[in-house]
Design goal:
7-stranded mixed β-sheet, mainly beta, 4-stranded antiparallel β-sheet, 50% strand, globular
Length: 123
């Protein structure tokens, strides 16, 4: 019954910014659920971007996006954000929202996924 849906993707210039959102349904505020953002470029494996607990708090980031991207969760809101700044060509990918039981960067440990949203950075 858990469903995730991403939005906010688009085309941006080198150095630009985008904000992605993930709306979630069917999640309980009293269960241990971790929300993750992943991305996948053509011909590459799905890559961890960032994660945060469903209730917010300390977030985890991949080294490639740390300092540029911010994941956030507003209390009482069923939405997770990924604010992306100083975007580069290597950030071009389909971005996915995911939910799982563990604090992890491995996509195989996430049980629920959205369909993804395309982010394209012009060079």
């Amino acid at each position: 019954q858990i469903q995730l849906a991403e939005s906010g993707g688009g085309v941006v210039d080198d150095g630009g910014s985008l904000a992605l959102s993930c709306t979630a349904s069917g999640l309980s505020f009293n269960t241990n659920i971790f929300m993750g953002w992943f991305r996948q470029a053509p011909g590459k494996e799905r890559e961890f971007v960032a994660s945060i607990h469903w209730l917010g708090g300390i977030a985890d980031y991949s080294n490639s996006v740390k300092g540029r991207f911010t994941i956030s969760k507003v209390n009482a809101k069923s939405t997770i954000w990924l604010h992306m700044n100083n975007l580069k060509a290597d950030d071009t990918a389909v971005y996915y929202c995911a939910a799982g039981k563990r604090r992890t960067s491995r996509p195989g440990n996430y049980e629920y996924w959205g369909l993804g949203t395309q982010v394209s950075v012009l060079t």
